[in-house]
Design brief:
It comes from Jingyaoa shaoxingensis. Keywords: Methyltransferase, Transferase. GO terms for molecular function: methyltransferase activity. Helices cover about 35% and strands about 20% of the residues. By secondary structure, it is an alpha/beta fold. The protein has 2 domains: about 1-115, 2-Layer Sandwich (60s Ribosomal Protein L30, Chain: A); about 125-285, Alpha/beta knot (3-Layer(aba) Sandwich), CATH 3.40.1280. Strands 9-8-7-12-10-13-11 form a 7-stranded parallel beta sheet, sandwiched between helices. The protein has a 6-stranded mixed beta sheet with strand order 1-2-5-4-6-3. It has helices at about 25, 30-35, 50-55, 70-75, 75-85, 95-105, 125, 140-155, 170-180, 200-205, 225-230, 245-250, 270-280, and strands at about 1-5, 10-15, 45, 60-70, 90-95, 110-115, 130-135, 160, 185-190, 210-215, 220, 235-240, 255-260. The model has no long low-confidence stretch (mean pLDDT about 90). It has 13 helices and 13 strands.
């Protein structure tokens, strides 16, 4: 590694692919970054200046940055603004082709930032002072998780709760698809020691929430049902890709809700269904 700018001591040109400080970008898996054994040391990768900026605004602490050399040399404003805020951490740089070979993928807008994770709030804390919550049950695709977060933030959901089997919202792809909205809306993951759905539902109901399971069942209310829309505190439950919500979860819910379909379509992708649900159930709050 070598410094590329005498005026900026934290910008370091990559000369050694095997350097241990690059492991976070080149060799650690998402699960290794999560670091379940020592969660206080857990990290994640934010991708693109806009997403990194949203993470910084939310108070996440940067560890290091990886930036395409051209972005710095051309003085790309959004990149330089982020670098000003990361002036206490190493900024590794190289040509685009070198960074692609190092990471295994093309950098979105030429910039990555490794950041420390933060302790998650409890479900009880999430439920305080909220009126609309999205509950994700075993949604395993990070693209879907990211898309759901983006819809939740944009369409008047106050928070998101995920069961333990869901893809982590701070996986790189989930963050990128969400456009950084994972940093703008409160969320947590249900503790594995809290039995789902029974104990989890008890926490929601104790906090005053009514629960609405979105499923393709005929014994359901329509999404525009006035009573459903009128609930002061409502948790919207969405299930895993393919199978949807577990039968035991639906049995615990106050409502089962069906989105009407046409042209012989039998269902929507869970991310698309979430956008419809959040819009309909959140629009009276705007």
């Amino acid at each position: 590694m070598k410094n590329t700018d005498k005026k900026t001591n934290n910008i370091i040109e990559i000369t050694d692919f095997s350097a241990s400080e690059l492991d976070v970008y080149a060799r650690l898996t998402e699960n290794q970054l999560l670091n379940r054994a020592e969660p206080e040391k857990g990290m994640f990768i934010a991708e693109s200046p806009k997403v990194i900026e949203r993470a910084l605004n939310a108070g996440y602490i940067p560890v290091s940055c990886l930036v395409e050399k051209r972005q710095i040399e051309n003085g790309v404003e959004e990149v330089l603004e982020v670098l000003k805020r990361c002036n206490q951490v190493p900024v590794y740089t190289a040509e685009f082709e070198v960074l692609t070979r190092l990471t295994g993928f093309a950098l979105t807008r030429g910039m990555l930032c490794a950041m420390y994770r933060r302790p998650l709030p409890s479900v009880k804390e999430i439920c305080e002072n909220t009126g609309r919550i999205a509950i994700l049950e075993e949604v395993v695709n990070p693209t879907n998780v990211g898309a759901i977060f983006r819809s939740a933030a944009a369409l008047n959901m106050d928070a998101v709760i995920l069961t333990a089997g869901c893809s982590n919202p701070l996986y790189r792809r989930a963050i990128r698809v969400s456009m950084g909205t994972v940093f703008q809306i409160p969320w947590t993951i249900l503790d594995k020691r809290t039995a789902w759905p029974q104990e989890g539902m008890e926490i929601l109901k104790a906090a005053g929430f009514r629960t609405a399971a979105f499923a393709l069942r005929n014994d359901s209310v329509t999404i525009d049902d006035p009573q459903l829309a009128g609930e002061e505190k409502l948790a919207v439950l969405l299930g895993t890709e393919g199978d949807g919500l577990d039968a035991s979860t639906m049995a615990e819910c106050d409502y089962t809700v069906k989105i009407p379909m046409s042209h012989g379509v039998d269902s929507l992708n869970v991310a698309a269904a979430s956008a419809v649900a959040f819009w309909e159930l959140g629009k009276r709050r705007t």
